[in-house]
Design goal:
elongated; 153 residues; two-stranded antiparallel ribbon; DNA-binding; 6 helices; 5% strand; 49% helix; Arc Repressor Mutant, subunit A; mainly alpha; 2 strands; homodimer
Chain lengths: 153, 153
DNA sequence: CAATACTTGACTCAATCAGTCGGGATTCTA
DNA sequence: TAGAATCCCGACTGATTGAGTCAAGTATTG
């Protein structure tokens, strides 16, 4: 029931890109500095997000990253599933990463039925929140007066 | 967002003890066999549950384990918290295992506010379910005709 | 006393996490 | 067209955790 450091960094980076979404790109270095993330590690993470289709990159001098889809098209559930695997606490209630467990009859397993509820609760929240929603929250929480580049994520 | 094998075994064992709750004790060996859990590993787990006050033990020939409190006094949240640590996906929204994170202002962190909701959703389910509830579910799911010792957990 | 069970602590082995590093490929700009 | 800036890729490391295993010990009962 845990989000890894890697996952948290990814969310922060995506949020920065969401807040500055537009035709231009943002450098890894800037994200790393602003969010206090080890640069080399962030490179690795963004590369991963790229091959998963969440972001796109531009190489060379004026290079950097931007979101591939619109911020409203990327749910936290998608991101976290890609980074951390199943959202469900046990494999036997996971929809996207289902794995049979050792109990003799899943349909009659009481533990499974509780974990099913936990899964649904988690997914309910995470499917409903997109990067765009997160950006709205940032603006709500921090008021309208801040310079866009200074937002605290 | 994951329940370890250890955690699952613990729940299964507690559920067996819940189903057979009474003055007598149940042997590790029986639980291990019935639930297909490595015996040595289960010993370790039950020992842990004992020092946490969930179960009590009796040594010697007619020895074994039983629940210390009534099955309705033990919530899944308690058990999992003890076994796996925080229920919250990130430390900065955990009530019982709070840990400050690296962001400059927690109250204005959008990621945190979402994770707060996730935590509340998880805890909402898990606090509401006790071992007794689980036993009811077992009976509901499996019908009233099964021999108490044969319940499939 | 012998058999049965729990008790305790150490130990292994593999996988995952959180990074780090070196060097390569592109692209812009002077 | 050289050189700087930037992303790209794979390998590597060190610490921690997960899932067990094992040996020897202690208590209880018949």
């Amino acid at each position: 029931m845990k989000l890894s450091q890697r996952g948290e960094y990814a969310l922060r980076a995506l949020l920065v890109m969401g807040m500055n979404h537009g035709p231009g790109v943002i450098r890894i270095k800037d994200i790393a500095q602003q969010q206090n993330i080890p640069r080399r590690f962030l490179e690795q993470i963004l590369n991963d997000l790229k091959s998963a289709g969440f972001v796109q990159s531009k190489r060379g001098v004026a290079g950097g990253y931007r979101l591939q889809r619109g911020p409203d098209q990327i749910s936290l559930a998608d991101i976290i599933r890609h980074l951390e695997g199943p959202l469900a606490p046990v494999g036997c209630v996971s929809v996207n990463y289902y794995q049979r467990c050792s109990c003799p009859d899943e349909d009659k397993c009481a533990i499974r039925s509780v974990m099913q509820e936990v899964r649904d609760a988690i997914v309910g929240v995470l499917e409903g929140v997109t990067v765009a929603h997160m950006c709205d929250r940032v603006r709500d929480l921090q008021g309208p007066l801040v310079n866009p580049l200074d937002y605290v994520i």
